[in-house]
């Protein structure tokens, strides 16, 4: 079976463009998601946090105005969760984009990265602000 490195699936999400444009965008997204040092790793060798970052990179490559993520920190440790939320916050500020995500167990250390929060309980809003 042929191996697939991290840098291979990312450009597949881009519309047609010049080689240099696509290459620049891939490098930019890999740097933003801290995947540059793993560019030649086999996708199968990645841990869960690295796979999560790769998934986010694949979706952010087209530079959408809005991304909706379902539980991007699920099953990650505290440090990896913190890093993912920090990375998403940096993306929003750098590119003036909106990211909406759900999170099961919010930790107080990620709140500085979040501009607005809404807490739900059994489908009802218990806090928004």
From TrEMBL:
Keywords: Membrane, Transmembrane, Transmembrane helix, Transport
CC per GO annotation: ATP-binding cassette (ABC) transporter complex
Keyword Coiled coil: no
Cellular compartment(s): Membrane
A GO molecular-function annotation: ATPase-coupled transmembrane transporter activity
Tree of life domain: Eukaryota
Mode of membrane association: Multi-pass membrane protein
Name this protein carries in UniProt: ABC transporter domain-containing protein
């Amino acid at each position: 079976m042929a191996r697939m490195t991290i840098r291979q699936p990312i450009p597949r999400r881009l519309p047609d463009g010049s080689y240099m444009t696509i290459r620049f965008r891939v490098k930019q997204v890999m740097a933003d998601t801290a995947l540059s040092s793993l560019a030649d790793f086999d996708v199968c060798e990645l841990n869960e946090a690295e796979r999560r970052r790769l998934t986010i990179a694949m979706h952010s490559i087209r530079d959408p105005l809005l991304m909706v993520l379902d539980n991007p920190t699920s099953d990650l440790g505290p440090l990896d969760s913190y890093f993912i939320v920090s990375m998403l916050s940096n993306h929003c500020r750098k590119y003036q984009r909106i990211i909406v995500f759900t999170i099961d167990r919010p930790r107080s250390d990620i709140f500085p990265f979040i501009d607005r929060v809404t807490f739900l309980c059994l489908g009802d809003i218990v806090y928004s602000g």
